[in-house]
């Protein structure tokens, strides 16, 4: 994987964007956080008016062995059902992708069973799609058939972590080569908030009770079980502070590692990549421990109810664009934020300017 250091934001482009906003026919700072978000995009892209015409959401898919501990509100195997809904155009993200002209890519990095896109072609009942055309692009880059139960073993081999990091980076490179100008990031994986809680606790040196949330909406009993699982796993593995690759190997997920690689590569390519909820923020935390220069390139869609995500957002000092009280996952918040950012760049590009004062 590319290990070149991540450079600073383009301050000249950011200042040019600020001045352009200030010269438009509107109240000063009238578009609020949208203006600062676009200025941030200018710093990443090096463009006074960032161009986000072609947008893609990358959704990493994997299964987790720890799900067998009953830490999710959904049973094992539900991950595949969610994928099928995506490929039929019936998931929230698929609908948003269609209506916002955002390309939807699902990438299998760790499903237990194979899932062939041709089996799930979108039907005539899906608006905007021709019969036989899939509602999302399905790419199989399986690294292994899910992770192991990290209460019993390491989640995955260190080599698998490195391969997942490279896989994520390759997907971003492919998107850039195909002319994609901005990314949203998402995931599907039953049990992955348990993994994220363990990673966050390990990297931020926090007790499990401060990072474990309800995830998919678990009951009080399941919540307590989830806390015990995370605490026991951290006690068993004793992950080294600050070593993101080792932590991922011990208690991580294949989709989390792939997202980490994607986040790092997007920054190196100066390609905006918007984070979604707890899982993508956990990947961003891993990316930070691999290269602290990533912090300036992190774009957050929203702040979720997950306490672990809130700890990461505070640690990385991120500012969310949206305040929709989301608790979804699957890239929904990231796609929504990316579309809002696109609309804001259109305003910056096309809105009229105040007439110059005569001397």
Automatic annotation (TrEMBL):
Protein name from the UniProt record: Nicotinate-nucleotide--dimethylbenzimidazole phosphoribosyltransferase
KW Transferase (keyword) present: yes
Family: Belongs to the CobT family.
Top enzyme category: transferase
NCBIfam families the UniProt entry points to: cobT_DBIPRT, PRK00105.1
Catalytic activity: 5,6-dimethylbenzimidazole + nicotinate beta-D-ribonucleotide = alpha-ribazole 5'-phosphate + nicotinate + H(+)
Entry's Gene Ontology molecular function annotations: nicotinate-nucleotide-dimethylbenzimidazole phosphoribosyltransferase activity
Enzyme Commission number, as recorded: 2.4.2.21
Pfam families referenced in this protein's UniProt entry, alphabetically: DBI_PRT (PF02277)
Pathway: Nucleoside biosynthesis; alpha-ribazole biosynthesis; alpha-ribazole from 5,6-dimethylbenzimidazole: step 1/2
Alphabetically ordered keywords of this record: Cobalamin biosynthesis, Glycosyltransferase, Transferase
Biological function: Catalyzes the synthesis of alpha-ribazole-5'-phosphate from nicotinate mononucleotide (NAMN) and 5,6-dimethylbenzimidazole (DMB).
